[in-house]
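Researcher: Please generate the 3D structure of the following complex. Treat every line as part of one assembly.
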Amino acid sequence: MRQPLLALLAKEPAHGYELKVALEQTFGLAYPSPNIGQVYVTLKRLEQDGLVRSQDVEQTTRPNKRVYELTPAGREALSAWVDEPSDGPRIRDEFFIKLILAPMAGLADRMALMNKQRRHYLALMRRLTELHADADPADTPARLLIEGAILHLQADLDWLERCQEEFV
Amino acid sequence: MSGSWLGGARGDAHRGSGRTDSGGREPSPPRGNAALLRTSGLVKTYRTDGVTVQAVRGVTIELAVGEFVAIMGPSGSGKSTLLHVLAGLEPATSGEIWLRGRRVDGLSTAGWAILRRRHIGFVFQFFNLLSNMTVADNVELPALLAGATTRQARQRREELLAELGLADKANAAPARLSGGEQQRVALARALANEPSLLLADEPTGNLDSSNTRDVLRLLRRTHQAGQAILLVTHDARVASLADRVINLFDGMVADDARVVPIPRSMNGVRDVLELRG
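Model: Done. Output below.
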């Protein structure tokens, strides 16, 4: 959650609860609703690392609130994060390791492994298509996230087909 | 949706009433056997330039009344050939095909044509609509060929096109429609005679993702209304709708299993972040 909080603070200073709400509003359902405690803990760590700083703002009717803002070091860290390429394809696939090793160890035959995996992928795919059909059309981040997951899963199935061609 | 547009024949069959055709010339399915389609040791061999290619090598499968089965498998695994043989578009080399309790693999070309007209709807990847006829005529033609009156054919066509959201395209030429619309028309045509069995060969293979979604929705609804469907697909979204997925490999059945849905949780979209292949 570090980078999303830094990104939100780059826009304007905010206190913990505002950040939680902003995360929810930005991502819709496409982001696990952050726990407020987790937001505060993360902010505290970011402050220890010198990436944000905070000050108490007095409120007349309520306890003081702590407002956070980005430091120059925080802005630099955020830029570096945005600039660096994100993780590519999931090539360190656990199933792939099983597929290679299990037959060598005499634990399973590859065809059975691939069939089992395909069944699992198809069950996941059904769940994803249901989620997509149920998603709020106005919640664009959620719809795109599901579509992304569907495309990844299709790629996994295509790749399984390639394994079948080579191994059987 | 009302469900009426698909007719009641399959609903009856679901209850095992053993309903027969008005002609009554065909035997009703054997009692206690809900298999709509059954093959046994089906083989299809091609000979081209003296080389023999075994495209389908002993396939034994079964499709129950109202069941939706998807056939997947790598290119060249024999999927499309199998489907074409099951539709009688190509003759089997050996083995048996039973449809509605009747052995059909030995039928003549004309016999297959009649069987298809009455009991089999077929959807192709590239739609195969008649380009010099309107959308309405394309959908009405199968009913007219099967002996329906002009009025019956028109009424059925109107129902189907309305249901598929194409009522306003009735008088258009197929070429003026998008790929997704053309495929929906092809589906309407395939369903015009309330077939016992809908066969489809890569029905979304040539469609973009939003058109694919339209066809998916349609397939789901058609199936929910009781239509038996056997289709070949690469698209896991299509396959995941099926009750059962058969994996064909090298002309043989490598896997044949139910799609077991993952239980719905309360988290909805947030699940996606947890769902991992």
